[in-house]
Design a protein that fits this description.
The termini are far apart. This protein is mainly β and about 850 residues long. Helices cover about 5% and strands about 55% of the residues. A hairpin with a 4-residue loop joins strand 20 (about 255) and strand 21. The strands form 11 sheets. It has a 22-stranded antiparallel β-barrel. The chain is built from 6 helices and 52 strands.
């Protein structure tokens, strides 16, 4: 009886209640009714009162608390209860933020007010602020699209219910960073990506020259050290597709191939595909090199200027408004003012065994010459965002090289002189419009034009003959591309492309008179479909597409499937399979080796579907990629076959020089790269094996080695980068390219006529070169950056033979061997200022 009596007194005492903290009271209510209170500590700090009776309902308890405090309570669905002070002079704006997909509260979302203050949401997605602080505010959170809210006349009694849409961003999967050098990465689609602004250093390079850099990638070579003769897996240079901001470039080199026409201080991203390129890339049977100067994110105003021993350049970017900017760059040779040691070595390399240095075979004629060479390039970009969904970008580029040769000759005490001109130029423009319809759908339209011209005007001092040659290309078209993100794993792209190319070849000769002008035009339509599956959890990347081409003139349909498959066998080991079918309607040929002074002797032509077939290629490659503990191993085996090639496109200087027939080449190869990174030191070793053969069924020798075959190639580099100092040393070794020797046993030495052995039955000597480069960068307190660079190509001054052919000398009436050599020791130095 005593125990029962004590318990009754205790219950009575609780009902009567003693003052307790307000926080303890609401915690008891949360536990009893499974609700959650939202409040700020300042509103309840130090507040105490008698608790409400436990027998009361939830609403009755809230009413009791409101009556005994200076607080108001808002009950939302018997789940959330907002607490705020009763302040008639200061109204509050409150709200809940949820995800639109799963309706779950979003914690730590940022609410940016117009008075530049910021509040965040709690675990329930709740926020509040005084109405006087803002009525228009922005809500943002990582992974969601920023939303603008106008509160209007909303009062404290009604909290906002706000849904945020997830922001789906498709990111390129990077397989490996810092491959070969910092700023170079390899992606899951098999492509190499170069970021020039993050570029470190490579042997012999002090600037991130796109076309020089790509020659460090296994499988990419230039047999004559020229960026105008890049051979990817045995293909010719014209079989590569070079794009600058969507514009096809028909000229890629200044100084007739020793310098890239693409300003190395301008590009933001360079993508290189050896195989498995996207179906949106056409008109190529070899590699794709896509250069973009459009930044991925907004950048501040900047200016830079630099000079080296060949050219000087400037670059400037200025933000006109928050949504628009203009960007310009210009580069010009300094050879008009000074002949540096670098220029002299370049000149000797480019013009050896050409009509510039070999004017006549008659020794009794006194020849003199004076040469003037110069080049420039310039670009302009204007970008404008319209609203939050649209962007317009205009790109313009102009490139020009000009060589003037003044020749004079004294014959029988008479002096004759002539000016000869060789000019090469490329102009391009691209207008693109991009619209982001929503987070999942984007459309991009490009309208572009590219114009190329090669002109030679040669007047001989002997014979009073004038030869004019001209090769003009005009290429324009429209690209439409739609990107659809179906979910986090699936994306689908579709599009349409129209391309028109017109090529004119003109020749006029006096004494004797000759005139020829041929113009051809070809129009193609292409439908593109492409789908991608990317599951990072199962480590599967699969992309398949098809390009369906229709050629109006031939009424021909060509279907080109493409495939990219990457599977992560483990965290460190990847298996990659790439395959593609491609076609190409234009190509470069050589009519005569002495055309255009024998320097830039190739001319563009269009397929006629008979004697000049449409080139077609098929390629497949299997790659194993291993990366662990800063070790990297990349082994790729490939098979490639290109049909529809002509002998005139392969640069023969043997018995096939004047033979016109068609055929194919077939190549099987292996590319290996081993790399190790240790603190500030990076070293790599690459090896490439190629077995590359021609097949000309209508020729007496139906099969023989390809002109561009390098059976074995080995490259090594050691790179040290610490803070602002970088240095790189490297070497390249390759077996000599094929050559054709004369059959001496069948040649009558008294009246020699060239008789050859089987084509490409021997090789020139082994190529070996050691290069070094170093850069140092420093910055002043005013934010001005300075960069000094120095490089030496072929520091051992090795005389490397890169080609060899034979001719009959009219002076000695004998067979003459003509050799062409690579660059001798060539120094270069650069200095750049940026701010």
């Amino acid at each position: 009886m005593f125990f029962i009596f004590f318990l009754v007194l205790n219950i009575f005492a609780q009902d009567k209640g003693k003052p307790m903290s307000f926080k303890k009271i609401i915690i008891d209510i949360e536990q009893q009714y499974q609700v959650s209170f939202n409040y700020t500590e300042d509103n309840i700090v130090g507040l105490q009162l008698n608790p409400p009776k436990k027998t009361l309902s939830l609403d009755q308890k809230l009413q009791y608390l409101a009556q005994n405090t200076n607080l108001s309570f808002e009950n939302i669905g018997n789940r959330f209860i907002n607490i705020y002070k009763k302040d008639p002079e200061s109204k509050m704006i409150c709200g809940y933020i949820f995800s639109s997909t799963d309706k779950k509260p979003i914690e730590n979302a940022n609410i940016n007010l117009s008075n530049k203050t910021q509040v965040t949401t709690d675990s329930n997605g709740y926020f509040e602020f005084k109405k006087e602080d803002a009525t228009v505010f922005l809500i943002s959170h990582v992974g969601f699209t920023t939303k603008r809210i106008v509160a209007g006349n909303q009062n404290s009694g009604n909290c906002l219910q706000i849904l945020l849409e997830p922001e789906i961003t498709e990111l390129q999967e990077i397989k490996a960073n810092a491959i070969l050098a910092s700023g170079i990465s390899k992606n899951n689609d098999g492509s190499f990506e170069i970021k020039p602004k993050k570029f470190g250093i490579l042997p012999g390079l002090i600037e991130p020259d796109a076309l020089q850099t790509m020659q460090q990638i296994p499988g990419v070579n230039s047999l004559d050290e020229s960026v105008s003769s890049i051979n990817v897996r045995g293909g010719t240079h014209d079989q590569n597709l070079f794009l600058w901001n969507g514009i096809r470039m028909f000229q890629t080199g200044h100084f007739f191939g020793l310098i890239s026409v693409f300003n190395p201080n301008l590009a933001h991203t360079i993508s290189i595909y050896k195989n498995g390129s996207s179906a949106f890339y056409g008109e190529s049977v070899s590699s794709v090199v896509a250069i973009s100067s459009t930044p991925e994110t907004a950048e501040k105003n900047s200016f830079s200027a630099g000079i080296n021993m060949i050219n000087a350049d400037i670059y400037a970017k200025y933000n006109l408004t928050k949504k628009s900017y203009v960007e310009i760059s210009a580069r010009k040779s300094i050879t008009d003012f000074v002949e540096t040691p670098t220029y002299k070595e370049y000149f000797n390399k480019v013009f050896q065994n050409t009509t510039i240095t070999d004017f006549s075979e008659k020794q009794n004629v006194d020849y003199q010459s004076d040469k003037k060479f110069g080049f420039y390039d310039a670009t302009l970009k204007y970008a404008q965002k319209i609203g939050s969904k649209d962007q317009i970008v205009l790109d313009l580029i102009t490139i020009k090289d000009k060589l003037t040769v003044f020749q004079s000759a004294t014959v029988y005490d008479m002096n004759k002189s002539e000016n000869n001109i060789l000019r090469q130029e490329n102009y391009g423009g691209n207008l693109s419009w991009k619209r982001k319809w929503n987070n999942s759908n984007t459309t991009k339209i490009n309208i572009y034009n590219s114009s190329y011209k090669l002109l030679a005007n040669q007047k001989t001092t002997m014979g009073d003959q004038i030869v004019t040659q001209e090769n003009v290309v005009n290429n324009n078209g429209i690209n439409l591309e739609n990107n659809h993100i179906l979910n986090s794993r699936f994306t689908f792209n579709d599009g349409y492309q129209f391309n028109e190319i017109g090529i004119t070849n003109f020749e006029q000769v006096s004494n004797p008179d000759f005139y020829r002008k041929v113009k051809d035009v070809l129009r193609t339509h292409a439908l593109i479909l492409e789908g991608k599956y990317n599951d990072t959890l199962s480590r599967i990347y699969f992309k398949a597409g098809a390009r369906i081409n229709y050629i109006e003139k031939f009424k021909k349909i060509i279907v080109e499937p493409r495939i990219q498959f990457n599977y992560g066998i483990s965290k460190n080991l990847n298996l990659e399979l790439l395959g593609e079918l491609k076609s190409q309607n234009s190509q470069q040929i050589i009519d005569l080796q002495k055309d255009y002074f024998g320097i830039e002797k190739r001319r563009w032509i269009i397929s006629n579907n008979t004697t000049i077939p449409i080139q077609k290629s098929r390629q497949i490659s299997l790659n194993l990629f291993y990366q662990k503990n800063d070790w990297l191993l990349d082994v790729e085996n490939f098979y490639k076959k290109v049909t529809g090639i002509t002998t005139s496109s392969q640069g023969f200087q043997n018995q096939l020089e004047f033979v016109r027939t068609t055929g194919d080449y077939e190549i099987v190869g292996t590319e290996v790269l081993v790399q190790k990174k240790l603190n500030y030191f990076l070293t790599w070793l690459s090896y490439t094996y190629n077995n590359n053969n021609y097949h000309f069924t209508n020729y007496e020798f139906p099969s023989f080695p390809n002109n561009f075959e390098l059976t074995h190639t080995v490259s090594w580099a050691g790179i040290y980068e610490k803070n602002n100092f970088k240095i790189a040393l490297g070497t390249k070794w390759s077996s000599g390219r094929p050559k054709t020797s004369p059959d001496v046993s069948k040649i009558d030495l008294s009246n020699p006529v060239l008789v050859y052995n089987k084509p490409n039955s021997t090789n020139v000597h082994i190529f070996s070169q050691v290069n070094i480069s170093s850069t140092y960068k420093w910055e002043t307190t005013q934010g001005i950056q300075y960069k000094l660079g120095i490089s030496i190509l072929n520091i051992l001054n090795r005389k490397n033979e890169i080609s060899e052919y034979y001719r009959i000398s009219s002076l000695t009436n004998s067979i003459e061997e003509v050799e062409t050599f690579s660059l001798q020791r060539t120094p270069n130095m650069s200095f750049r200022v940026s701010f």
